[in-house]
Write a structure and sequence with these properties.
- This protein is mostly helical.
- The protein has one domain (2-153).
- The protein has helices spanning 2-19, 30-52, 55-67, 77-105, 114-138, 140-151, 155-159.
Amino acid sequence: MFLAESEAILAAWDAYSDEHTDADGWPYDEVSYGWRMVQRDSETWRAFQEVRLSARELLATAAVQLQHVNAGDIEPRWAWQLAELARALEKLETLRRRHAEVREARRDLPPVSQEEFVDSLAERNEEAWDSLDTWATQGRALLDIHAVALKAPTRILGAVPSPVRRPAGRRG
């Protein structure tokens, strides 16, 4: 779900950016462009939350699956992609934790204005953009690895001996 959502978010951003920047990539209206970027970051952060809770398990599963497929079926880029996804996840978790700690520390202080709260979310999401983009662009490797693993003969079943055949009609 995240991969499809992030692809749609990025496609919408690319279309907006192409339409609202000059030939050199400079925005016609920096304020509107900045707000649209904030929206992109926020939508991508929100979409990733569905994956976040199981991301470590997805990475661990893919790593184990790679150990059980034929070496000839492994794409050389997969190890790099898994490492990049793990690095990006660490950064995203750090940003999420840091933002939660700041909110918790402010619990006993006078409430911040809605504008300050939105700004803090926008700042977190902006810092997260590169890592979110990594998951959006490299996350398909998890699906590719899983697809190859499903086609691989299972080593466990290959090691199980066939049952002893008994002649028909005899019991016991």
